[in-house]
Amino acid sequence: MQLIFQFGTFHAMSEAELISRFPQFAGGKTIQGRFFVVETNESPAWLMQTLGGVVKILEVISSSNAPDLEFLATEIIDSCQSRNKISFGVSVINAPEFAKIGLELKRYIQEKASRPTRFVVSKTPELSSASIKLEGLLPPDGCELVVLKDSSMVIIAKTVQIQSFAEWSFRDYERPGRDAKRGMLPPKLAKMMINIATKTRDITQLHIYDPFCGSGTVLAEAALLGARRITGSDIAKFAVDDTKKGLAWAQKQFDLTAEITIFQHDATSTPRHVKPGSVDLIVAETFLGRPLKTGEQLTSTEKQDLTSLYHKALTALTPVLAPNGVIVLAIPFQTKPFELLPLAEIIADTAFSIDPILPEHETVLYMREDQRTGRQIVRLVKN
User: Fold this and answer.
1) Does residue 95 have a pLDDT over 80?
2) Neighbours of 228 (CB within 10 A)
3) Residue 56 to residues 51, 86, 152, 158, 168: CA-CA distances in angstroms?
């Protein structure tokens, strides 16, 4: 079958996660930057559960110069089997000439079916995941069709999976130890970073370590993905305490069974609590520096201090990482004016080299419009 992955806000990061975790999709086609078309027999439900950067998964049902309305009406009827009423919606992407296709389909459906028909209208051309959930537009309750134009070709797909936004919100905002004032790694980003590090390896067989564990977001997401052995450390006692609280909460909420080790430690020295060569993946958001207010910038000294910190941490972590180990880090960059930290200097004279996250990008940037400090995601391999 042909599936379309609809990426979230950070398209490059979502694509990097997808291709890293599923390299067989590397030959897929990108449309409008945020839709990625592939051939696969993998379960859409499992794919959605695995990935953090995909908001919808669509199944292609036709691709032609013009939609066959009678065929599409039948597809909608067949998708609405669990209820007497036929409920459907339409999202139109890059194809304004099909803005009224929903009303046309409703007329066809009413002619073909003897069931009540409800066409869900949106104020925007595209239905959100929240609307799809609220209106019951996933099979077998309902149907959302997506009209996606690619050059002269019109692709029609139906939504088969949506990201569980309520669960993400619960994991993010309800966990103990959350403190927005000192910066929080979003759980979605943590999951994407883990997948970028894991690639095709079986995460249940890997030992994952976060030496800047903060409140434990990376470790919780690793456990939710199935990791059975996770280790975390942080220089700050309150961070260690928050991580322990957060992981205890996650274990209770999601019935996690991972073996967990958490301890206080300065990441610039080799941890004595971790057996040499035992760590398969290191995934971490490093210390990002002090929060910047409007108009503020990091000083030259602060930038050099951060560069030195990351260099020392890589050197200290070398002994605990397995020979085929991978490191994925989120390091800060300044958004206004735009300035990246010197990666070449950070990895100079270490045992690591950059493993490009995408064929055309060594690293990927992740930032929100209102942030003064963004995150540069880098993947390193041990030489």
Assistant:
1) yes
2) 17
3) 11, 21, 24, 10, 14
Cα separation values, 197 from 175, 203, 251, 321, Å: 24, 10, 23, 13
Tokens at residue 374, please?
């963004």
Query: Residue 183's pLDDT is what?
Result: 56
Binned at pLDDT 50, 70 and 90, residue 182 comes out as low
- What confidence tier does 372 reach under pLDDT thresholds 50, 70, 90? confident
Q: Could you state, in order of their start, the residue ranges of all structural domains in the chain?
A: 2-163, 179-382
CATH architecture, domain 2-163: 2-Layer Sandwich (3.30)
Contacts of 358 (CB under 8 A, 6+ apart): 12, 15, 16, 19, 364
Q: Quick check: 192 pLDDT over 60?
A: yes
> For 179-382, which CATH superfamily applies?
Vaccinia Virus protein VP39 (3.40.50.150)
69-79 and 101-112 helices cross at what angle (nearest 10)? 70
Sign of the dihedral through C-alpha 270, 273, 278, 281? negative
Mean pLDDT, to the nearest integer, of 185-196?
Answer: 95
**Within 13 Å and on the Cβ side, how many CA atoms surround 297?**
11
Distance of CA 172 to the CA centre of its chain: 14
State the average pLDDT over residues 152-161: 94
Q: Residue 185: exposed, middle, or buried by beta-carbon count in 10 A (0-12, 13-18, 19+)?
A: buried
For 3, residues 6+ apart whose C-beta sits below 8 A from its C-beta are 37, 38, 39, 40, 44, 47, 57, 58, 59, 60
Q: What is the mean pLDDT of residues 56-64?
A: 95
Q: Measured between alpha carbons, how far is 5 from 41 in angstroms, rounded to an integer?
A: 14
pLDDT digits (tens, 9 = 90+) for 315-328: 999 999 999 999 99
